[in-house]
Specification:
- It is built from seven helices and four strands.
- By secondary structure, it is an alpha+beta fold.
- The protein has a domain at 7-140: Winged helix-like DNA-binding domain superfamily/Winged helix DNA-binding domain (Arc Repressor Mutant, subunit A), CATH 1.10.10.
- The N and C termini lie far apart (50 Å).
Length: 198
Amino acid sequence: MRLMKRASVLTVRTLGQVRALADPLRAQMFAAFAHGPRTTKHVADALGASPTKLYRHLAILERAGLVRRAHTKRKRGTVEQYFVAAARRLAVDPTLFQGAERDETLARFRMSIGKWMDAAANEMLQTVQHRARCRDRGSRLKMVVSRFATRIPETRLPKVTKQLEEWMVDARQSSRKGVAYGCFLCFYPLQPDRDDGD
């Protein structure tokens, strides 16, 4: 079965794409499909959701050009439809934050980041609470949390970015028998007049 080659990076250029990704569940779905072709049921099982609940969200991602149909597969007399993310990761076109739709784009983008941060914070809080109840197991599972500002020479930026991308690809190699972990990673340039520090 020959699969269509997909780009490694998809640049988000429209407000519709920003709206599609503003929902945390759709963002999680995109991340799941970024691993490779999956059925809606595969993604639903991975996210602990009902497949029926995902159909509407999948249609929104597909209309926005973020997810596309990959191939079909016959199984037990039925035909399974596989979908895949348009690219392995996303980049944002800076011109989105200009022009007539600038305010709405910024608001949507801020809402997306806020929802992702809230989801990550809730998951970390649940982990802390679980450790309080099950110290014997929780003590063996490390949770790494860090926030900092740094200065990186421009000549090193491509290498650092590549290392992060390679680590994300490696970390996303999910195993059914593995320990479930979450990750919320941001790596972004700061404003020139910002001071270094926490």
